[in-house]
């Protein structure tokens, strides 16, 4: 059996009287797209924040590639291959799209590159940055200032910057938020093209997107796992239908 890339073990997180993670456990396998769904307040964002290292759990562990990363800060997790937009670098509007990705390559490269070369000139940084932009369909915008990108373009740039670190797992918390139908459909295609190459933990409310992309789905409710499995199993699970998906799921 394939060993999980990410193991979430018994996470507990409370805010005052609210239990946002209630002994939450699930795994993400290498290369899979794993969707985390559930009603508002189910604890999805809190779970992702604990995996990314932005929030410290009250109890439980997060293992990445078999290693306990529960106590590691965000940047150390990123260097191990846990990628998230805004994690190390954020978009600099006055810099070109290509500069932004080259800076992200540099930031993720660790000590070997950190003091070496200028991200606005060094080909060791610019070539992989250009290749990433090409993969995401942003090559025509490479020389334009990041500030003038559309909302969808900016979200795609953030994804390019996350990918620049060659993550093994991407944490995607509502990547299509605020996008129109066209940009959203383009983002689905971009993510679909990355399938198999990088594992993704995808928090998404749009069930069409979830069912288009996910290999497995974990449904949260009240901070715990209500159901977990292949999309067809989850869609047919009566507890899920009752708690969340509603009539449309069985139609
Ligand atoms: N910083 C905080 N302080 C207090 N309560 C919080 C905090 N963060 C989250 N909560 C509470 O924890 C619960 C889980 O919130 P969380 O944002 O993780 O849910 P979610 O599934 O991501 O919801 P949504 O789909 O609405 O984004 C909610 O009841 C929320 O109000």
From TrEMBL:
Domain ABC transporter per the UniProt entry, residue ranges: 6-247
Keyword match Transmembrane: no
Xref: SUPFAM superfamilies: P-loop containing nucleoside triphosphate hydrolases
Record's protein name: Branched-chain amino acid transport system ATP-binding protein
Entry keyword ATP-binding: yes
Membrane-crossing residue ranges in chain numbering: none
Keywords tagged on the record: ATP-binding, Nucleotide-binding, Transport
Entry's Gene Ontology molecular function annotations: ATP binding; ATP hydrolysis activity
């Amino acid at each position: 059996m394939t060993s999980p890339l990410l193991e979430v073990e018994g996470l507990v997180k409370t805010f005052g009287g609210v239990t946002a993670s209630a002994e939450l456990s699930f795994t993400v396998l290498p290369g899979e797209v794993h969707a985390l769904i559930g009603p508002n307040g189910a604890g999805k964002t809190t779970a992702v924040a604990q995996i990314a290292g932005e929030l410290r759990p009250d109890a439980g562990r997060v293992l990445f590639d078999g290693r306990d990363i529960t106590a590691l800060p965000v940047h150390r997790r990123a260097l191990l291959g846990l990628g998230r937009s805004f994690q190390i670098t954020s978009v600099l509007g006055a810099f070109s799209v290509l500069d932004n990705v080259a800076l992200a390559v540099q930031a993720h490269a660790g000590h070997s590159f950190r003091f070496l070369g200028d991200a606005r000139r060094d080909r060791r940084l610019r070539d992989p940055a250009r290749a990433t932009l090409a993969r995401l369909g942003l090559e025509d915008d490479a020389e334009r200032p990041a500030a003038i990108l559309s909302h969808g373009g900016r979200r795609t740039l953030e994804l390019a910057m996350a990918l620049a670190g060659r993550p093994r797992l991407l944490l995607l918390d509502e990547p299509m938020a605020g996008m129109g139908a066209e940009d959203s459909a383009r983002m689905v295609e971009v993510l679909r093209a990355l399938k198999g190459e990088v594992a993704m933990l995808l928090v998404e409310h749009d069930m069409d997107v979830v069912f288009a992309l996910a290999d497995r789905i974990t449904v949260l409710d009240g901070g715990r796992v209500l159901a977990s499995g292949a999309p067809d199993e989850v869609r047919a699970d009566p507890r899920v239908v009752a708690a969340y998906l509603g009539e449309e799921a069985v139609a």
